[in-house]
Amino acid sequence: MDKRELIEKAYELAREQYKAFGVDTDAVVDKMNDVQISLHCWQTDDVGGFERPDAELGGGGIQVTGNFPGKAQNIDQMRQDLDKVMSLLPGKQRLNLHAIYGEFGGQLVDRDQIEVKHFQGWIDWAKQRGMGLDFNATCFSHPKADDGYTLSSKNEDVRRFWVEHVKRCRAITAEMGKQLGSPSVHNTWIPDGSKDELVDRNGHRALLKKSLDEAFAHDYPREFMLDAVESKLFGIGAEFMTVGSHDFYLGYAIKNNKLICLDNGHFHPTEQVGDKVSACLQFVDDVLLHITRGVRWDSDHVVVLNDEIQLIASEIIRNDFLNRVKIGLDFFDASINRVGAYVVGTRATQQAFMRAMLEPYAILKDFEENGKYFERLALLEVMKSRNFGAVWDYYCLKNSVPASDDFIAEIQKYEKDVLLNR
Ligand SMILES: C[C@H](O)[C@H](O)[C@@H](O)C(=O)CO
Ligand SMILES: [Mn+2]
C-alpha cells in the first residue's frame, strides 16, 4: 500500500471512530480553513531586522540564543525562507512584520521616519500570495530605548520619538489592510520597566497612557486596521517592574476598545492564557494571541503541542471564538534549523486547533451540566488516545503538503541546498 492509500485508509477508520462520539471529521477538515495563523517574520533572522547590515536584537529584555547556520541576512532570504515554510504548512497563513523589516534601500531611516513606501514591497509580496499582513512597532534595539524606557520615558524628546514611531506604524498597518482587503492588526509592545526598586510606578504608567492616547488619536476604519496592546510580567533587566503590565493594558483595551494581546510567555508560569480568553472576551471585542513556549521564563522556545496550547485552542473552539481571536506566533530559537522551527511550531498550533475541533463538546458539556464529573474526566481522557494523527495526515494530504514526518526530509534538503550555502 502506498503512503497515500495508507493515509486514506487510516482516515476512513478514524472517521468512523470519531463518528461514534458525534464528531464529523470531514467538517473538521473543512473548518480548519478558518484557522489562520500569522507567522512572525522574526524567527528567520533572530529578531535582527534590516535597518543596517548585521543588525542584531539589542536590549528590550528579550533574548535569542543559538547560532545555527543559515539565518536570513536580507529580505530576499527572509522571503525565500517564508515561502519554504508556507509550502510545508496546510491551510492559509498571514505574515506578521516588525517595523525593522522595511526595505530601506541602504539608507538609515530612523523609526520616526518610516513610511508606507518602505513596506510596499511586502504588501505586493503578500498580495501575490493572497495573504494578509500584520504589523508591529519596534520599540527596542535602538539607542533611544537603551535606558529601558520608550513610550513611558520621562525624557520628553524620547517619548515623542516613540509616539511618532507608533503613529507611523499604525498608518502603515492601515495601508496594508486597505491594499490587501483584510484588516491588519497593529500590536504595540514596549519593553519599559525597571531592573530594581522604582518609586514612581505611577508616573511611568501615566506617561504610557498619555503616549498611547496620542499615538492612537487617529481612528482608522476597522476594516483596515485593528490596534492591539501587549502586556508582560517582566523582561531581562526589567525584573522589578514592567510599566505595561496586564492590569494596565487590559484596562486600557477595555476603556478604548482595543485588542488585548495575550502572549503566553508573559505571565506567571502558573497562569494559563487559555483561561484568560473567555475572561477577556466578556469585555473586549477581540483578542490577539502570541503563541509561544516559555521554559522557566519567557524564553520563546518553539511551540509544541502541550497542555497549555491545547487549552488555548480548546477554549476558542468550545466557545466559537475563532472570529474574535487573531492568532499570532512569537518564538525565536536560533539553536536549531530556523525554517524547521517555524514548521514544527506552526503545525503544533494548528494541531491544537484540530484536536479541539475533534472534541465531543456537546457530550462533555452535558455531563458537566448534569454533575457527571467522573464521566466528563473519563471521556476527556479517552479522547486523548483517539487517532487524531490520522485526521491530521489526511488534512495535510488534502492540502498537498507533506503528512506525518515527511516535512523533516524536506527541511533537511533545504538546509543542505540553501541554508548551509549562505
Ligand atoms: C518581537 C516581539 O514583538 C516581541 O517578542 C514581543 O511581542 C514580546 O513578546 C516581547 O517579550
Ligand atoms: Mn509577544
Automatic annotation (TrEMBL):
Metal-binding found in the keyword field: yes
EC number: 5.3.1.14
Role of this protein: Catalyzes the interconversion of L-rhamnose and L-rhamnulose.
The family this protein is said to belong to: Belongs to the rhamnose isomerase family.
Species assigned in the record: Alkalitalea saponilacus
Catalysed reactions, semicolon-separated: L-rhamnopyranose = L-rhamnulose
Protein name per its UniProtKB record: L-rhamnose isomerase
Pfam families per UniProt: RhaA
Pathway this chain belongs to: Carbohydrate degradation; L-rhamnose degradation; glycerone phosphate from L-rhamnose: step 1/3
PANTHER family associated with the record: L-RHAMNOSE ISOMERASE (PTHR30268:SF0)
Highest taxon, organism lineage: Bacteria
Assigned keywords, A-Z: Cytoplasm, Isomerase, Manganese, Metal-binding, Rhamnose metabolism
Cellular compartments annotated: Cytoplasm
GO cellular component: cytoplasm
Cofactor(s) it depends on: Mn(2+)
One GO biological process term: L-lyxose metabolic process
Binding site for Mn(2+): H266, D298, D300
Encoding gene per record: rhaA
HAMAP family: RhaA
An annotated Gene Ontology molecular function: L-rhamnose isomerase activity
